[in-house]
Specification:
By secondary structure, the chain is an alpha/beta fold. 27% of the residues lie in helices and 22% in strands. It folds into 2 domains: 40-305, Aldolase class I (TIM Barrel, Alpha-Beta Barrel), CATH 3.20.20.70; 314-405, Sandwich (Immunoglobulin-like), CATH 2.60.40. The structure holds alpha-D-galactopyranose.
């Protein structure tokens, strides 16, 4: 009998051979259980630059509790460049600027934790940070221990003033230092995509920046910074590198910042969710409109970003003035985002069976318009049992649909 034959055979096969022929399990060196879904939080840089202090951080936390951001999943409070004193102390230890952080970082970390958040901090792999504060070069192990002793849960490590250093090796050193410090810390590699970190970042950190810095405009471009449409463009083809525990990072959110229209904030947020991007709010959450709050806290859109399948979405169609991005979700569902990249309103007519991704295991789907919070109906792709769907999409806005298979 087949079963007994198999049993007998396995009995005689030495263990070493069984191990040799075991299917290779795709575990990265860093498969430490952190960042199984893209990290979410708030980061000081996009709005406040180096102008940060304890008061701002505490007010931000209070606001995020009141406005529902904490409950929506934004948990890392990240102090970007400028929290440090201009120089290390006489023992070489990195220290916070004493006037702006009078109670020190351990106390701030305790406060952050007591409010149900996690503590994130920024520093740099070079001799100085981009804003000219002490960097970590040559101090990796002592700094990692210091951060661990403050209760840091997340570090964004930047790439200014690194000279000719090898990026992979340099980040590896800090990664090893964090590991040696013994505290689980999410490691965010921020070298702007210069050395293709998607090819080596997975075994070193949990996320890596893919481009230069984002600014709050749709498609403008400056020397070091890019509007989010340019950043989106740069993500094409990177989808295969992302997955649970290791994410492409197209930079922090500009949602709610003054250079974007409401539609551009909504579409920016939507597309970052399609990309399974880390969601780091970068606005002044103490003073935001209800519309912006509703974007940042929309649970159905966030669920697309945080879907446990952990697949980054990709561009399915690119035509002048419009594009379609899709993201596979768990249990056979799909998120589909129609993006009007033109400056005039787009009249859309969707014939469902043109969405070839929906053809396969399932035929029948429930279709939901997420931003309008409206169930559009049920379609049967195989029987072509539906009417074409027509709608208008405002300039730079999106239509976000979710397709959930049904029996
Ligand atoms: C770099 C990073 C930014 C920010 C600044 C701080 O430009 O890419 O995200 O951290 O440094 O100086």
């Amino acid at each position: 009998m087949k079963t007994s034959f198999t049993k007998k055979l396995s009995f005689y096969i030495p263990m070493s051979i069984i191990i040799l022929f075991m299917p290779s399990i795709n575990l990265s060196a860093l498969d430490d259980g952190l960042a199984r879904t893209p990290p979410m939080g708030w980061n000081s840089w996009n709005t406040f630059g180096t102008n940060i202090d304890e008061k701002l951080i505490k007010e931000t936390i209070e606001a995020m509790i009141k406005n529902g951001m904490r409950d929506a999943g934004y948990k890392y409070i990240v102090l970007d460049d400028g929290w440090e004193a201009k120089e290390r102390d006489k023992n070489g230890q990195i220290i916070p600027e004493p006037k702006r952080f009078p109670n020190g970082m351990k106390a701030l970390g305790d406060y952050i934790h007591s409010k149900g958040f996690k503590f994130g901090i920024h520093n740099d792999a070079g001799t100085r940070t981009c804003a000219d504060f002490p960097g970590g070069r040559g101090h990796e192990y002592e700094d990692a221990r210091t951060y661990a002793s403050w209760g840091v849960d997340y570090i964004k490590y930047d790439w200014c003033n690194t000279g000719k250093a090898n990026a992979e090796e340099t980040f590896k050193t800090m990664g090893a230092a964090l590991k040696a410090a013994g505290r689980p810390i999410v490691f965010s590699i921020c070298e702007w995509g210069t050395n293709k970190p998607w090819e080596w970042g997975k075994d070193i950190g949990h996320l890596w920046r893919t481009t230069g810095d984002i600014i709050d405009c749709y498609n403008c471009q400056a020397v070091y910074s890019l509007g989010w449409k340019h950043i989106l463009e740069a993500q094409v083809g990177l989808e295969k590198y992302a997955g649970p525990g290791h994410w492409n990072d197209p930079d922090m959110l500009e949602v709610g910042n003054k250079g974007l229209t409401l539609a551009e904030s909504r579409s920016h947020f939507t597309l970052w969710c399609i990309l399974a991007a880390p969601l780091m709010a970068g606005n002044d959450v103490r003073n935001m409109s209800d519309e912006i709050r509703d974007i940042l806290t929309n649970k159905e859109v966030i669920a697309i970003d945080q879907d446990v399948l952990g697949k980054q979405g990709y561009r399915m169609m690119d035509h002048p003035g419009k594009e379609i991005w899709v993201k596979e979700l768990s249990n056979g569902a799909w998120a589909v985002c129609f993006h009007n990249t033109d400056d005039v309103t787009l009249e859309m007519k969707i014939t469902w069976d043109h969405l070839w991704i929906l053809k396969g295991k399932h035929n029948k789907y429930k279709v939901r318009d997420i931003w309008n919070k409206e169930d559009i109906g049920i379609i049967d792709i195989q029987k072509q049992d539906y009417e074409d769907f027509k709608c208008e999409i405002a300039p730079h806005d999106v239509l976000l649909l979710k397709f959930t298979p049904i029996k």
